Each structure stands twice: as C-alpha cells, then as structure tokens.
TrEMBL record:
<feature type="transmembrane region" description="Helical">
    <location>
        <begin position="55"/>
        <end position="76"/>
    </location>
</feature>
<dbReference type="GO" id="GO:0004252">
    <property type="term" value="F:serine-type endopeptidase activity"/>
</dbReference>
<keyword id="KW-0645">Protease</keyword>
<feature type="transmembrane region" description="Helical">
    <location>
        <begin position="207"/>
        <end position="226"/>
    </location>
</feature>
<feature type="transmembrane region" description="Helical">
    <location>
        <begin position="29"/>
        <end position="48"/>
    </location>
</feature>
<keyword id="KW-1133">Transmembrane helix</keyword>
<keyword id="KW-0812">Transmembrane</keyword>
<dbReference type="InterPro" id="IPR022764">
    <property type="entry name" value="Peptidase_S54_rhomboid_dom"/>
</dbReference>
<keyword id="KW-1003">Cell membrane</keyword>
<keyword id="KW-0997">Cell inner membrane</keyword>
<dbReference type="InterPro" id="IPR035952">
    <property type="entry name" value="Rhomboid-like_sf"/>
</dbReference>
<feature type="domain" description="Peptidase S54 rhomboid">
    <location>
        <begin position="78"/>
        <end position="222"/>
    </location>
</feature>
<keyword id="KW-0378">Hydrolase</keyword>
<protein>
    <submittedName>
        <fullName>Membrane associated rhomboid family serine protease</fullName>
    </submittedName>
</protein>
<feature type="transmembrane region" description="Helical">
    <location>
        <begin position="165"/>
        <end position="187"/>
    </location>
</feature>
<feature type="transmembrane region" description="Helical">
    <location>
        <begin position="138"/>
        <end position="158"/>
    </location>
</feature>
<feature type="transmembrane region" description="Helical">
    <location>
        <begin position="112"/>
        <end position="132"/>
    </location>
</feature>
C-alpha cells in the first residue's frame, strides 16, 4: 500500500484552488515538462494496478521506503518517488497545484535554477519523511513534497497574489478570489493538524513530506527574494505580483447545471 501524498492538496474542506491571477512572463517549459513526465511515467505502469503483487513489487523498487534506507538500501527512492503516483486523483491533484503555482516560481528563478529548486525540494521532502519515520515499511510516492516546495516559494514571492478557489457547499458552487497566503496558510495548518491528529502511517498521508517540502521551498527561494530587495521588495509590491494581474469575468459563480428529467 502506498502513502497518498496529495489528499490534502486537492481539497481543503470543500474548497480547492483552480487558478491564480498571476501571469508568467515566459513560457514555463520546465513546469510543463515536469507535468508531462509525471503523466507519462504514471501511464507507463498504470496497468500494474490490476495486479496487487505487481504494483507492490514496482513500488518496492522505485518508491521511498524508509525501512529500506535504514538498512542501507533503496536510496534511489529519495528521487524516483517524486515521479510516482498512487492513482488518477493523486496525479490530477498534484498536477493542478503544479500548474497553478509552478509557472510563476519558474519565471522568477529561470528554467534551470527552477528545475534544481523543484528536485531539491522533492529530495528534502523525502528526507523529512524518512527522518520522522525511519522504520516505516510503507512505500511513499507522489510529487506533493516537491510541489509543496513550489508553494512555499510562491508564498514568499507573492503572498498577496489572488488565487481563485472553488467553494463547494452541497449543491452550491462559487469561485472566490482570495490572497495566496490565506490558501497556503490553511493548507499548511491542515498538514500540521493532520500530523498531530494522525501521527505515523495511520492517516495514509505523508504530512512530514508536505511540511518538509514547503519549508524547503521557503528557504531555497530566499536568495532570489533577497536579490529583489527582501522586505523592500514586499514594500514596493505590497505582496502582489510586480506586474498587472489577470482579470477573469467569471470570478463569482459557476454556471448552474440543468436538472435532469
């Protein structure tokens, strides 16, 4: 059984982000390539899910298994695990977050630096999971740790960029624009309380990988933030993107679906 690294990415108690108002100044080639790589790799072993023994053997070879590392094996999983996913929803949730936040961080760092930033956050996230559960035999898979790092970097650079969230309350749907720091602070808080409420492997979510990746993103993007002036950069931009934001015409309501007869 593989830990799901993205359950808290996709939804936050009936709401989840669908886009931001922060356009990038260049084509985010690395973000698109990472998305394609994750999708292609998932499709390459998707058929194994029909055979529990086959998928478990695959994850044993390529996922992060803390107990194996404690035995001096499986070190490759620190890197390969961030390109594996445990199902379609796991993959879709991660790719949504990478699509929303990745392009702007890539725009700020440049293509190659952003690639190193992403991979570094992913490895640090995996190490955080290992250090906190060094004897766990449960395979850990998912890009969530690396993407949490992207979210941490986004928070430092654009804390007040507007992010549209889709709010679902039973049969009512609304899109609300809120500051990025609100969305990311709620997400971070859920990781903390999730780990406190269900420590260890019981929850099926690798909260420490999320938290480790997020904090790694905050630290690794510090040089770029300081080069722009640090607090002076925030003072100039007031936490908003330093360029005009995108304006959408459908920011308040989702069209209603007709009733079936």
């Amino acid at each position: 059984m593989a830990l799901d690294l993205t359950r808290q990415h996709a939804t936050v108690r009936g709401m989840f982000p669908i886009r931001d108002h922060n356009p990038s100044g260049r084509t985010p080639y690395v973000t698109y390539t990472l998305m394609l790589a994750n999708i292609a790799i998932f499709l390459s072993y998707w058929g194994l899910f029909r055979d529990p023994r086959a998928i478990n053997a695959f994850f044993f070879d390529w996922a992060l298994i803390p107990a194996l590392i404690s035995e001096g094996q499986g070190f490759a999983g620190l890197g390969t695990s961030m390109f594996l996913h445990g199902g379609w929803m796991h993959l879709a949730g991660n790719m949504l977050f990478l699509y929303i936040f990745g392009d702007n961080v890539e725009d700020e760092l440049g293509h190659l630096t952003y690639l190193g930033f992403y991979l570094g956050c992913g490895v640090i996230a995996a190490l955080a999971q290992y250090v906190t559960q060094p004897f766990s035999p449960v395979p850990t898979v998912g890009a969530s740790g690396a993407i949490a790092g992207v979210m941490g970097g986004y928070l430092l650079m654009f804390p007040r960029a507007r992010v549209d969230i889709l709010v679902i309350l039973i049969i009512f749907f609304r899109i609300l624009p809120v500051p990025a720091w609100v969305v990311l602070a709620i997400w971070f808080g859920l990781q903390v309380f999730g780990e406190l409420g269900a420590p260890g492997d019981g929850s099926g979510v690798a909260y420490w990988a999320h938290l480790g990746g997020f904090l790694a993103g905050l630290v690794l993007i510090l040089p770029a933030w300081l080069r722009r002036g640090g607090p002076a950069f925030w003072h100039r931009t007031r936490g908003h993107p330093p360029h005009p934001e995108v304006r959408y015409t459908d920011t308040t309501r989702i069209p209603k679906v007709g009733r079936k007869r």
